[in-house]
């Protein structure tokens, strides 16, 4: 493994950094984008029951708002319940935009890794090929074994770049779709919650 890394030249090191970032972001997003942490099932009904019983104290509001993004959105809407519905819907959309930024955190970095990894790998290969053919010109003759070894070493960075880029792109698309689904759930729950508030 060490021989492969050294054979790839110094271009392999930024690719290693990309791989570490990829792994870190994937694990962080897999944990953070869990449905139970973002939009727990039945939470809006629990809040509605508390409102019906006049039991939604300030302490409970703070506790609910800090447990999940859905709780934060519902409590935010409830704090404006004395205003007209159109006003509250506008405030809810503003809050949803803030939550969207939180859910999409690090996705741009994941997209960047997917984009630059193959380019870094290709650049490493090009530089490696230039070095191989430069050595041929210096020596004045081409040893086929040395030439094959040099070319295979030059291609290591391209392979490594693609190994990083493919999962990065797959996870980026996965997290992007997961974020869209979670935002849809948040909006649906907020709409049901507003229906409840303004039917009272």
Protein architecture, described:
By secondary structure, this protein is mainly α. The protein has one domain (2-199). It has 9 helices and no strands. The N and C termini lie far apart (67 Å). The relative contact order is 0.17.
What's this entry about, in short?
The chain is mainly alpha-helical and 200 residues long. The chain is 84% helix and 0% strand.
List keywords for this structure.
200 residues, mainly alpha, 9 helices, 84% helix, rod-shaped
Q: In oligomeric terms, what are we looking at?
A: single chain
Number of strands: 0
Helix fraction, binned, reads over 70%
User: How many individual helices?
Assistant: 9
**Class based on secondary structure composition and strand pairing:** mainly alpha
Order of helices and strands: HHHHHHHHH
Rg, alpha carbons: 27 Å
* Biggest sheet overview: none
